[in-house]
Amino acid sequence: MAYTIKVNGKTRTVDIDGETPLLWVLRDVLDLKGSKFGCGMGLCGACTVHLDGAAIRSCVTPVSAVGSKTVTTIEAVGRTGVGRKVQAAWLDLDVMQCGYCQAGQIMSATALLVQKPRPTDKDIDDAMSGNLCRCCTYTRIRAAIKQAAGLPTADTREA
């Protein structure tokens, strides 16, 4: 069946089964490889994208559920002011090690800062709790979120 979805500001029509996870539509049909497959159960956060600005797990979201909502992926999040600040903080604080989870981490962090521009530590913990990092860069992730929000943070480069 044909589904028309808006992805990164462009309207795209895909002819695919409605139960196909959005992740596979993005990666395999639309060739947007930034969102990663991690667990396939919505538990690790590697596949996080925005659906009308909310962070969702694209591996468990069927394309039929998108409807008229707007999908934003890591490829386009930097077009927003908050997304640019988050990406800059990630680079400034050397957050990435292997990098596999970082697209999902950035997408969750950006959604948090759009909703709560000056988050508390609890807000950060709650928003990021579903994003796993095998390299354990959690201290740097928290610092980058705080930096992007303009909040004080300790230097975590040695963490």
Describe the structure in your own words.
The chain is 36% helix and 14% strand. The model has no long low-confidence stretch (mean pLDDT 95). With 159 residues, it is an alpha+beta fold. It has helices at residues 22-29, 74-77, 81-92, 102-115, 121-128, 138-149, and strands at 2-7, 10-15, 48-51, 54-57, 70-72. A 5-stranded mixed beta sheet has the order 2-1-5-3-4, with helices on both faces. Helix 3 packs across helix 4, helix 4 (102-115) packs across helix 5 (121-128) and helix 4 packs parallel to helix 6. The chain is globular, with a radius of gyration of 15 Å.
Provide a brief overview of the structure.
The protein has 159 residues and is α+β, with helices and mostly antiparallel strands. The protein has helices spanning 22-29, 74-77, 81-92, 102-115, 121-128, 138-149, and strands at 2-7, 10-15, 48-51, 54-57, 70-72. Strand 3 and strand 4 (54-57) form a beta hairpin.
Main sheet record: 5 strands, mixed
Q: What is the terminal-to-terminal distance?
A: 49 Å
Measured as a percent range, the helix fraction is 25-40%
Secondary-structure-based class equals alpha+beta
Overall geometry? globular
Q: Secondary-structure element order, as H and E?
A: EEHEEEHHHHH
Instruction: Let me know the average pLDDT.
Output: 95
Name the features.
single chain; 159 residues; alpha+beta; five-stranded mixed sheet; globular
Question: Layout of SSEs?
Answer:
Elements lengths: L1 E6 L2 E6 L6 H8 L18 E4 L2 E4 L12 E3 L1 H4 L3 H12 L9 H14 L5 H8 L9 H12 L10
Parallel strand pairs: 1-5
Antiparallel strand pairs: 1-2, 3-4, 3-5
Helix pairs in contact: 3-4, 3-6, 4-5, 4-6
